[in-house]
Specification:
Nucleoside Triphosphate Pyrophosphohydrolase; 16 strands; single chain; 3 domains
């Protein structure tokens, strides 16, 4: 695996500035830093400058119509970098068009994509968690956006991250892929599902395969290959390869349109783009990385 490049969203050059987030004086000083910059979002999508996130002078964001307070992402070369979420009706003269986040993730460098994942996940978490789940009062941003606090009951709220097991089921020189009806035509991918409370990663992996494809797997064979933050809206994808015990497929038609076995040779064709029936997810997706790893082992 060492020869494979890092996945999108997995690296970030920022110092997340943990040591100053509880220091109100230091945070105020950061806002006045002469080199402070912001990355801008509109409806969850970023503004790009070519193949990088647009850096906008933080001082110029003061008069922009924002959905909420700026979020401190961290320090970039010693200067603060903020995420600013603009309201849908905000006027943005002088700015380029905002780009769909998935498309942006495929254009920017892996380091830039790490910043993108952090910013978008925090913006989406804040948008969906304005009110305290304990008492219903509106929460307040604290620690420069890393936390929200309820002023009534003092409950602290932290960003939600949803763990997802995504697994390549293998048997000898064959692997299992599926597709959902909503996906683009020809697109097939590894099976995946959310990890449930009281469940290990390996058990979730085996359960999802059994539920979606009717195939039994041995959780003890589950191998974690890689993981990836996935900001849609804020998941942690845990990529595994697991051995099948049975091979007969029974599809959960509510979840899947089709599931089938593919040979290692077919996977090689998919990765090269020459398969006559199947396309794989883009290179930013962990599902493709699992297939790259398994194909190389053959």
């Amino acid at each position: 695996m060492n020869h494979l490049p890092p996945l999108a969203f997995c690296l970030s050059p920022l110092d997340r500035a943990d040591e100053i987030r509880r220091d109100a004086v230091a945070l105020k000083a950061l806002e006045k830093h002469t080199s402070a910059q912001a990355v801008l979002f509109l409806r969850g999508d970023p503004a790009l400058d070519g193949n990088a996130l647009l850096r906008w002078p933080y001082s110029k964001t003061v008069n922009m119509t924002q959905a909420a307070d700026p979020i401190l992402l961290g320090l970039e070369n010693g200067a603060p970098l903020y995420a600013v979420d603009l309201l849908p009706d905000a006027e943005t003269p002088g700015l380029p068009e905002f780009t769909d986040t998935r498309s942006a993730g495929m254009r920017v460098s892996v380091e830039e994509s790490g910043i993108l994942a952090q910013a978008r996940s925090l913006i989406e978490w804040r948008r969906k968690h304005r009110f305290c789940s304990n008492c219903g009062a509106e929460t307040q941003q604290t620690e420069a956006g890393r936390k929200r606090t309820c002023p009534d009951c003092e409950t602290e709220h932290f960003p939600r991250i949803d763990p997802v097991a995504i697994m390549l089921v293998v048997k000898d020189d064959w692997c299992l892929l599926g597709r959902q009806e909503s996906w683009p035509e020809r697109m097939w991918s590894a099976l995946a599902g959310f990890i449930e409370p009281g469940e290990t990663i390996a058990d979730a992996c085996a359960r999802e395969i059994r539920e979606e494809a009717g195939i039994q797997c041995d959780p003890s064979t589950a191998e974690i290959v890689c993981d990836q933050p996935w900001p849609f809206p804020s998941s942690l994808m845990i990529g595994l390869i697991i051995e099948a015990v049975t091979v007969g497929i029974t599809i959960d038609e509510y979840e899947m349109e089709a599931v089938r076995w593919f040979s290692r040779d077919e996977v090689q064709e998919m990765l090269s783009g020459t398969h006559n029936e199947v396309d794989l997810p883009p290179k930013i997706a962990i599902a493709r990385r699992l297939l790259e790893v398994w194909a190389a082992r053959g």
